[in-house]
Amino acid sequence: MSSPQAPKLDMDKLNAFIGQFVSDLGAAVHTGMVVIGERLGLYKALAKGPMTSAELAAATQTDERYLREWLASQAAGGYITFDAAANKFSLNEEQAFTLAQEDSPAYLPGAFELALGSLAAVPRIADSFRSGAGMGWHEHDDGVFHGCEKFFRPGYAANLVSSWIPALHDVQQKLEAGARVADVGCGKGASTILMAKAFPKSHFFGFDYHDKSIEAARETAQREGIADRVTFEVSKAKEFPGKDYDFVAVFDCLHDMGDPVGAAKHVRQSMAKDGTWMIVEPFANDQLKDNLNPVGRVYYSFSTLLCTPCSRSQEVGLCLGAQAGESRVREVVTAAGFSRFRRATETPFNIVYEARP
Ligand SMILES: C[S@@+](CC[C@H](N)C(=O)[O-])C[C@H]1O[C@@H](n2cnc3c(N)ncnc32)[C@H](O)[C@@H]1O
After folding, report:
1. Which of 139, 151, 256 most suits a substitution to test ligand 1, by most atoms within 8 Å of the C-beta?
2. pLDDT, tens digit, 9 for 90 and up, residues 161-178
């Protein structure tokens, strides 16, 4: 009897892959560490200057033993800096910029809150692989809604008013003069509120089918003192009320919709004749082989847990996925009767398309 042959392994490749696994496993559990750090104000406290674990515990009213373990995990992961001679922990400029400054364009903790919230759906989504059932956005853990807003808002703050809107034909002038604007699938209204602050003569209508997100958006508009020019309403993308919008925007949600073509047709009917539709989607190339990179990995994973199940839960269930790419978005837009479509601009994380009737 011959014994089964041992596989011929390339030890260099095996070791490299195991090295990647250790980094990935650390990153996976690190998700919870970042959420804890943000929730308890640990990064913000550390940004004030170097501290021992006891000093940080006193400053944040936390248990020193737990904190020491957390600090060690953070220092091992490069998220905070450890000075062994002084036995103190601190944040360098870059760590503080990304972990402690909520208004920084690269504020990172929201991404981890989104990841942790999404992972709560894993048991149900694993079942969906067999049943094909969908899962609506509204059915997710609260961390998904909070994390999504916290993750996306800095990118919108850095790009929307300063570069995305100026890249569109004639839109900035209309918004400055006073326009009617719809932000469809607005979630908790981060983009709507940013635009309303920048263009005080325009009126903004934010729509989303998720009632809890709309409630939160209304509260933010009140708190920010702009409720007079921003109206948030619960509505599906195929049904939102109003006509003659000069500008309609969708941020990172066209691919989440079950019937994006139906939504696009409704957008077209709701727009003024010379109106503009801005479609912001995750950055993606048309071919899978060109998306096999770290950004693609992030988006395909979120898409498996959030975007594809959301689309599957709605009528038609087209399931574009978060890496749809320009060609598929163009097909949706032109199927709805828009005659002009172009990529207006892009960042490493987003593509901004412009569609006109
Ligand atoms: C990834 S989130 C983006 C939220 C927001 N636009 C932002 O950028 O922060 C996707 C949003 O699309 C909304 N959505 C999904 N399907 C929808 C539909 N058919 N009509 C209206 N909103 C929808 C969800 O409720 C969710 O708020």
Report:
1. 256
2. 999 999 999 999 999 999
